[in-house]
Amino acid sequence: MVEKMDEMKAILLRMKDDTLTEINKAVKSGSSLSAGEPSGDIYDQASSERDRELGLLLNDREREKLHNIDEALLKIEDGEYGICEECEEEIPLGRLKVMPFARYCVKCKADIEKQQAQTKRFEEERAYREIALGEEEEA
């Protein structure tokens, strides 16, 4: 068991280093793009803006990944690593090797995603109904 935790800790630390390296690369390339004066035609400027926005989105994902890795490392220290936060069963080692910062077993994660999809669909349907009612009132 201790050997498994040491292996997972090493994997998480390597992932953290790789993620920090990617964030630093993105920050450097983003600052070099924004440092220059706007150049080119409107299409070049639009392309640059799109690239910058994509870089910011990726940075958010990388920061989220870093947060998840740090949480997993804390769980290792607390002796709570590899336990599903929903059902409190042990998360299979195969899943942890693929997703070392997994918080849920596969079954619980699937149930959570299904619930989120149903909630999103319900909210979208409600928004469409409100739009339709608003249009009827205007007519």
From TrEMBL:
Keywords: Metal-binding, Zinc, Zinc-finger. Residues 79-114 form the Zinc finger DksA/TraR C4-type domain. Signal peptide: none annotated. Residues 6-76 form the DnaK suppressor protein DksA N-terminal domain. InterPro entries: DksA_N, DnaK_N, Znf_DskA_TraR, Znf_DskA_TraR_CS. A zinc finger (dksA C4-type) spans 84-108. PROSITE patterns: ZF_DKSA_1, ZF_DKSA_2. It holds the Pfam family DksA_N. SUPFAM superfamilies: DnaK suppressor protein DksA, alpha-hairpin domain, Glucocorticoid receptor-like (DNA-binding domain). This is TraR/DksA family transcriptional regulator. It comes from Geomobilimonas luticola.
